[in-house]
C-alpha cells in the first residue's frame, strides 16, 4: 500500500496541474522529491523557516521597482498620501494585524491548517486564487471565529 503522505502530495501535484496552479504543483513536487530522496531532515527546516524565506522573496519581488529606480521619491510620496495610498496604508496595517492574529490561532490550534490548505486548494481551483499565505487564511479564520463569538 502506498504511503499516505506520498499519495496526498501526488494528489496535490495532480490538482495543481489540473487547476493550472504552478505554485501548488511546484510545492507538492518539491515536497514529494524531498520525501522520495529521504531528505526528511529538511522538513523541520522548511517548517521553521520556510514561511520567512517565502516572505523574503515576496518582499523582494514587491520592492524591485524601488531597486530599479523606476519610482521617484516625489511619486512615491504623492501616491502614498493619495486616497488610494491611504487606503493601502490602512489595508497593510489591518492585514499585518490579521496575520498576527492568525499566527496566534495556529499556535493555539495547529490542526486548523488542514482546513486552510483545503480551502486554499478550493480557492485555487474554483476561484482562480493564488495561495499567497497561510497566515492570511489563519487571520481571516480568526476574524470569522471572533465574529461567531460575538453572536453567541
Automatic annotation (TrEMBL):
Secretion signal span: none
Q: Where in the cell is it found?
A: Cell membrane
State one Pfam family annotation.
DUF441
- What keywords would UniProt list here? Cell membrane, Membrane, Transmembrane, Transmembrane helix
The regions listed as transmembrane in this protein's record are 6-37, 49-68, 112-129
Its placement in the membrane is given as: Multi-pass membrane protein
- Principal location class: membrane
What GO CC terms are in its UniProt record? plasma membrane
Q: Does the keyword Transmembrane helix apply?
A: yes
Q: Which domain of life is it from?
A: Bacteria
- Family, per the entry? Belongs to the UPF0756 family.
Entries under PANTHER family matching the protein = UPF0756 MEMBRANE PROTEIN YEAL
- The name on file for this protein is UPF0756 membrane protein Desca_2074
Query: Which species is the source of this protein?
Result: Desulfotomaculum nigrificans (strain DSM 14880 / VKM B-2319 / CO-1-SRB) (Desulfotomaculum carboxydivorans)
